[in-house]
Amino acid sequence: MVIKVLTQDKQQILTEYIQNLTTSSVGYDFRGKYIDGVYRFLESAEEVSRRGWKRWKKAHAEELIYMPWIQDAVCNMLASRGIGFRPQKEMASKRRYIDKLEKRDVRQTETINNFLLWLNNEKEYSPNTLRIYSFSVRDFFSYFDEFNQDNARRYIATLEEKGNNPKTIRLRITSIERLGEYLKKPVKLKRPKIQKTLSVENVPTENEYNKILDYCDKNAPKWAYIIRLLGTTGCRVSELIQFTYEHIQAGTCDLKGKGSKYRRFFFTKQMQEGAKGKSGYVCTNRYGLQISKEGVRNVLQTIGEKCGVAKEKMHPHAFRHFFAKMYLKKTKDVVALSEILGHGSVDITRIYLQKSYDEQKKEIDRVVNW
Predict the structure, then answer these.
(1) Domain stops at, among 31, 62, 94
(2) Digit-coded pLDDT (tens) for 26-61
(3) Do 352 and 232 share a structural domain?
C-alpha cells in the first residue's frame, strides 16, 4: 500500500481541524473516525473547497457507502473553515462498518461509483439499501467483465448452485436489474418464490407489553412513551426516529419511509396529551441528538433484561407486529391494517392472522373436546 504524505498546507489544515475537534460536540469515540475521514479526503483531494469535495465524492462514491462518517467529517471540517458546508448530524452512537474494499479494475470501479451515485440521486435509497446494491454489483463483476442478459442469468444460476437463500438471490436480481437500467442494457431475470412467513413467536404478548410499560413508567418514563408510540402506531424504527413532538401534537403526520414511500401516521389522544409542552425529536440520545436505529434497539434490549422479557421480543419491529396483532384482534379488518402498515399487498398483512405456538395450543385445548 502506498502511503501519501500530505503537503505542508494540508498538514496545517489537518492540525487545525484536530484542534477544532477538541472543543466540538463530536463524541470522543468518533473523533478518531472524523480525523481518519478528513485525512483520507486531504491525501487525494485536488483542492480543499466545495468543488474539491464534490469531485472527491464522485470519485469515491462506493467508499462513502461503506464509510459514511467520511462525509460527516469532511463537511464538519469545511464548515469549521467557513467554506460553506453546514456540519452534518454528528454521530453519537457506535456503528458497524464493512472492511475497506479490495482493489479492482479501474473501469469497473468507475462503473460502480457512477451507478451508486445515480441510485442516490435518482432513487433516494437508504444507505443500507445502497450497501446491498454495492455488494451485489461488485459480486457480479467478480465473475464477469461484461454486463449482459446472458451473464446476468449465469450469475444467478451460479448463486442457486451454491445454495444461496432465495431471499438473497432476489436481492441480487433486483440489484442487477437496476444496474441494467442504469447502463441502458435492461435485463429481466426470474425470481425464486419465497413463502411469506412471520415468526409470531417473538412478538410480545399483551401481558408482556403491559409488564414492560409498568417497568418503564417507574424507571424510564421517556421510554415508556416511546414504547407506547411503537405499540400504538405500528411504525418502523426508521420512521420512529423521525417523529417530533410537534407531529404528535398535530394528531397526524406524513413521513417518508421504506422504499421512499410516504405513509400517514395517526396518534392517539393519550400520545397527544403526553406531547404537550414539548418540542423536537421524540427519540434522542444522551447528547440531545436524534438517536440512531441501533441506539433504539440497544435501549430496548437493556429494558428487556431488567424487566424480564426475552430479548428476542425486545426489538422495534416486534412492537410493529404487536400493533398488528392487537389491531386485528380488535377489528378483524385486514384491509384497513394493510393500509395503516403501508404494505404493498394485503397478502403480506394476512400473515398476522397466524397464531403463535402458545395460542395454537390454547385453541386446541378449548376447541378439541371430542
Answers:
(1) 94
(2) 666 677 888 888 888 998 898 998 889 888 988 888
(3) yes
